[in-house]
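Standup notes
- DV: blocked on the single-chain target, sequence here:
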Amino acid sequence: MTPGRTKSIAILAMAAGLALGGCATSGNPKDPIEGFNRAMFAFNDGLDKAIVKPVAEGYEAALPTPVRTGVTNFFGNLADVFIAFNNLLQGKVPEAASDAGRVVVNSTIGLLGVIDWASDMGLEKHDEDFGQTFGRWGVGNGAYVVVPLFGPRTARDTVGLVLDVTADPAANVNHVPTRNTLMVLRAVSDRATLLPADKVIEEAALDKYSYVRDAYLQRRRNLIHDGNAPREVDAEADDPLEPRPRLAAEPAPADGGVHSAAEPAESGAAQGVSLAQAAAAGRL
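- DV (later): unblocked, structure below
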């Protein structure tokens, strides 16, 4: 393991420890370390506005849609490798087999994943990670925490993120220039796909931090239960509530002549629109 990756994992582990150890620092049971989280959210958001978003806008302006879609598909194919592994860990054998099939098809006739033939063949694109695997095993959320650079997480998902980083195919490329190029390209590509959500969040949220937090927690709960989350009880109410309505979804990217990955529409708020959600979407 390289020193850079060791440092990244150490940062994630420290953030998880902070989240787990800071549960009594706030009166909000959903967000017990809100002061720290708001500070980190402001840092991530500022970095995004100053550097990441402008680069993503330039990337979108410079490259035609088919090229950008091909880049997205390529990294989606890499992600399918450990998505299959997580589905297997969760006992979802048919889904794991489908994911493995996607990798085989797209890595061969799909030219290393640039063209997503697997979706056209009926092999569904899934979204799984180690945080979801822990959730399926019964591990609770723990404290909500905003990780520097990586953005919205729960304590459970932060621990899962450490494993995601360790298992990430792109991060395990031994040739340093190639690895760094892949990591940067993926982050920029993922951020570019979230640009349409920026305006929605800015217009809809009186408190952007709370909006992103609630959207993230709702989305993670939905993912862990594969879209069939049970009714939950609001901490401030006596009666169970139906799940909140899904937030405004990001429009699907245009095909532009290249087969796009069959990704479910996701709210930009749920991803955390900052440098963080670029890493989150790409599972860095």
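- Follow-up: The chain has twelve helices and four strands.
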